[in-house]
Amino acid sequence: MTNPSEVPFHCEVENSTENGVKVTTVRCHGRLINQTAGEVKDIVKPLIPQGGMIVIDLEDVTFLDSLGLGTLVGLKVSAINEGYCTLKLQNLSPRIQELVKLTSLTKLFAS
């Protein structure tokens, strides 16, 4: 059951250029869980072939479950395999950092 005061999950997409490289920042808000992970995938997956850098900002993510983490891993692997862009996570809460560390994914997201 969700807390009624909690913000419904949503993402905002912001485009910019840094040192001549296209940067797309996807700011996520709320709980990145089973029911909302598809939304992130639907937003980020089409950005990968466009190249540049994709930054997924998790500063306002209040909870991340295994499917949410699995979605982030899948997007990172797609970015690596397709070779068009760099995908990185930004502003991970201490809890999410610990989850990434416990699942031995630190190296994957470090690059």
TrEMBL record:
Protein name (record): Anti-sigma B factor antagonist
Pfam families named in the record: STAS
Source species: Tunturiibacter empetritectus
A GO MF term: anti-sigma factor antagonist activity
STAS domain segment(s): 23-111
PANTHER family xref list: ANTI-SIGMA FACTOR ANTAGONIST TM_1081-RELATED-RELATED
Top-rank taxon: Bacteria
Lineage start: Bacteria, Pseudomonadati, Acidobacteriota, Terriglobia, Terriglobales
